Write a sequence for this structure.
């Protein structure tokens, strides 16, 4: 035992000498070896950092959503804007006469019926040709009349002479985003999803019937973040044009390669319920399937019928070889006009 005690005393003396030597030379004591638990903890932390970095990259890729949806018919938009209700949103229409104002009222009421959010305004840009009485009917019916200066052409097709007026939706009027819809349409599905799209100069559906001009968009439906600089650009483009252009032409000539393109089923011509039904299915299995996925039907010239307000309902004869929806659109319009615009009868 004495030998063991002597060894311990020697170890203590050696340790004391080492401590003294390290203090004199200012060398730190050796650090204890890293334990397995510390290694495991460090590995877990590194793994968590890698996972976090991967998630951030994925989120970045989602936020950088492309401005071109192309020709696909899938409408499951990945990226959505914040649902911050402080943003001012509105559905827009335009009217240069009492009949168009009635159509705007019909469209606004249909959107509410389809579940449009209460926080989204219904607005009709109205020119001086819309009577005060009709503007009062709009307001009572839940559509805000917004006076604008009519943008009329003195040359060109008389039918489209006031069509440039719709481009005033690019002017800043207190709204962060507007969804514009031509009023010579029948709306079939809720369109609130369009307010959640990422920013683009504007969004619009393909004018699929003009396949020889693609890419080419229709101005029947437009999603716009109003900007006075963009409106000034349009004004200049029209001022220096070499031949008369209308709203659809101007937008395509200026921005068709920069705008966001919506799938074709957002706007389908009524005539394609009557003809070329197999040609324009957009990947759906049959005509009924396409109809069920259509958001808006636009009244387009088709023999023997045209716009429903220019027709006598008693003159319509249903062809059993034509899909019933073609005729139903006319019936829907006439019923809604009688219900919501009795002052015009």
């Amino acid at each position: 035992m004495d030998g063991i005690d002597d060894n311990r005393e020697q170890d203590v003396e050696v340790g004391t000498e080492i401590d003294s030597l390290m203090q004199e030379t200012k060398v730190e004591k050796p650090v204890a070896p890293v334990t397995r638990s510390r290694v495991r903890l460090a590995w877990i932390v590194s793994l968590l950092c890698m996972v976090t970095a991967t998630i951030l990259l994925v989120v970045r890729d989602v936020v950088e959503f492309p401005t071109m949806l192309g020709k696909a018919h899938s409408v499951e938009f990945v990226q959505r804007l914040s649902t911050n209700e402080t943003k001012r949103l509105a559905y827009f229409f335009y009217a240069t006469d009492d009949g168009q104002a009635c159509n705007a009222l019909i469209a606004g009421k249909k959107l509410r019926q389809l579940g449009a959010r209460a926080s989204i305004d219904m607005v009709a840009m109205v020119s001086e040709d819309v009577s005060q009485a009709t503007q009062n009917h709009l307001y009572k019916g839940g559509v805000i009349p917004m006076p604008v200066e009519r943008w009329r052409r003195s040359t060109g097709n008389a039918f489209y002479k006031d069509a440039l007026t719709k481009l005033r939706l690019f002017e800043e009027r207190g709204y962060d985003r507007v969804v514009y819809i031509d009023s010579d349409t029948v709306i079939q599905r809720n369109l609130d999803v369009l307010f959640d799209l990422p920013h683009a100069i504007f969004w619009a559906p393909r004018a699929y019937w003009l396949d020889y001009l693609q890419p080419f968009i229709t101005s029947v439906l437009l999603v716009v973040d109003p900007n006075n600089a963009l409106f000034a650009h349009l004004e200049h483009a029209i001022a220096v044009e070499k031949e008369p252009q209308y709203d659809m032409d101007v937008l395509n000539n200026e921005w068709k390669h920069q705008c966001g393109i919506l799938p074709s089923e957002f706007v389908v011509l009524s005539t394609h319920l009557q003809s070329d039904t197999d040609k324009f299915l957009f990947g759906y299995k049959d005509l009924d399937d396409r109809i069920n996925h259509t958001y808006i039907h636009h009244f387009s010239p088709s023999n023997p019928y045209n716009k429903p307000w220019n027709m006598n309902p008693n003159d319509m004869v249903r062809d059993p070889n034509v899909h019933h929806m073609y005729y139903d659109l006319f019936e829907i319009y006439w019923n809604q006009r009688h219900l919501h615009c009795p002052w015009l009868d």
Notes: The longest strand covers residues 89-95. Residues 1-32, 57-84 have pLDDT under 50 and may be disordered.
